[in-house]
Amino acid sequence: xxxxxxLRHATPxxxxxxxxxxxxxxxxxxxxxxxxxxAEARRDLGKIKDPxxxxxxxxxxxxxxxxxxxxxEVRRTELHTSEVNATLEAERVDVTLxxxxxxxxxxHLIQQTMDEIVDIFVALGYTMVQGPEAETxxxxxxxxxxxxxxxxxxxxxxxxxxxxxxxxxxxLRTHTSPxxxxxxxxxxxxxxxxxxxxxxxxxxxxxxxLPVFHQIEGLAVDDNITFADLKGTLGQFARQFFGPDTRxxxxxxxxxxxxxxxEMHAYTQGEWIELLGCGMVNPxxxxxxxxxxxxxxxxxxxxxxxxxxxxxxxxxxxRTLIDPDVRTLEQYR
Length: 333
Prior knowledge:
Layout: H1 2-17, H2 21-32, H3 37-43, H4 51-90, H5 109-123, E1 127-128, E2 134-136, H6 137-140, E3 160-161, E4 170-172, H7 178-186, E5 191-200, E6 212-223, H8 227-242, E7 247-255, E8 258-268, E9 271-281, H9 283-289, E10 296-304, H10 305-313, H11 326-329
Parallel strand pairs: 1-5
Antiparallel strand pairs: 2-4, 3-4, 5-6, 6-10, 7-8, 8-9, 9-10
């Protein structure tokens, strides 16, 4: 019983001095746990012969254990509340601060360039249309007045596909020009369209060539369209894209689907640079799609999106545009 009195007087101070829940658990184990003095006294109750004394001793043991357990539980609640409040204070969020906006991505430079060029022509009254990347030989070549002997039809230049039993060869389109014929077949004039998209050539990758790149084709068909309309339209585009002081010139060239044909050059960064090919739509193309070549005229043009981006931003190696290095991509923001 002397041990009980000592335990009764010493335990309250020990419980109040416990600084953490771990300290409190240790006190609980040594005072009323399985190996404590209280537990040992309970095991020795059977040695007391007198029933009255045994009951009185057991009641005293239970009262002491209940009192210590209550003190420990009260202190445990205080420590738990203190720890929770400390955690909340450490992790407190000032809701009056502006929110953290996550860093946003952006379009690739090629997509940015393509979107801007299309927007310029849409503002001039053109409609954007798109066509299939897997194309027939008829639309890719024949409908555009490209002769059967033209070298671009060879497998060394064009990627042909195995596409079941078809009457016409299937290939990956080498330009977006097939949409000229496809659109005119299903639409009556007038026609004013731009056709952006991915094109494919059997080229090895180097500083000026890629096997997959992007083009934008344009077509205008109406009554009394002249080469002056072509020059005015493309001149306006160049000034919108490169700046209001941009000068352009047209140099005679040859394309099977336009006649007369030309290359358009622009004076930028202190030199004349070739930008695109263009010309008046060849009457043979009109005949292929059922247009009246006697009354209708039109012009067409085609440009490489990567080339436009390179000229505008001073990029000298085409491979830069397909570089997945984050240090390169970061510059497109």
